[in-house]
Amino acid sequence: MAYLDKYFSGMHVKNITSQVLRKFVAALQEGTLQASVEKKEKGKTGQTKDTLSNASINRILALLRRMMNIARKDGLIQVVPHFPMLKEDNVRTGFVEADQFKEILEKMLDKLRPLVVFLYRTGCRVGAARQITWNMLSKDCTMLTLPGKIVKNKDAITLPVSSELTAIFKKQFRKDGEPLFEDSNLRKEWDAATQAAKVPDLLIHDLRRSGVRNLIVAGVPETVAMKISGHLTASVFRRYAIVAPAQIKNAMAAVEAGDGSFLKSM
């Protein structure tokens, strides 16, 4: 918002054209706008960022575009200009493989393991999983019903609970309204566990990406997998469901097995 406020302050909305937006993007890419914003963004090292990534610029543009679309729907403006979105080349493709997950899980505190397993099995968002309460779990601990208010696509979903989690939940005392999962210091403990497992670059959000891929590899139809993971659009879902090298290798092996060998041994 600081960048938008600084650049567009006092400008009439009708004067925000595609050409103006391109100049705004150029100012962000060159770092000239950042220098004039009083409250500068801080990086992890505490150093001031002079430039923004394409992804960050796109998020700023998306915010302004959302404002203008709301204004158009309310009849305040007639046209929303074309927004010159930038190509993003920093999309993460990190996955937690099964053997890595087992090792990380061994390094996690016992109380956090049910949540981490749930994230890996379903591809559920961490934010949504933290809002799951005991009253959303069926009496036999085999099904979860998540209300639309905690699901990203706003549609209530029913999820099966893996047998390993069902066994754990049955041993615990139900507290309706209380969180189902323990999540104290989750990110801190995840960082410590991945360090100990010698995979420090893996993020906890990679569990979501891995969960999506696991569903697809297991043969779950895309529409059903999207329902489980709570993805709003197929395009974003497919970006998560990136094919692993092993899948490509297995696919070729399946094709060869079906056709037989075309070349004689030489």
What does this molecule look like?
By secondary structure, this protein is mainly α. It folds into two domains: 2-73, no CATH class; 98-240, Intergrase catalytic core (hpI Integrase, Chain A). Helix content is 49%, strand content 3%. It has a two-stranded antiparallel sheet with strand order 1-2. Helix 5 (98-107) crosses helix 9, helix 6 crosses helix 10 and helix 10 packs antiparallel against helix 11. The longest helix is centred in the first third of the chain and has 20 residues, at 54-73. The radius of gyration is 23 Å and the shape is globular. Mean pLDDT is 82; it is low at 40-49.
Provide a quick synopsis of the model:
This protein is mainly alpha-helical and 266 residues long. The protein has 13 helices and two strands, in the order αααααααββαααααα.
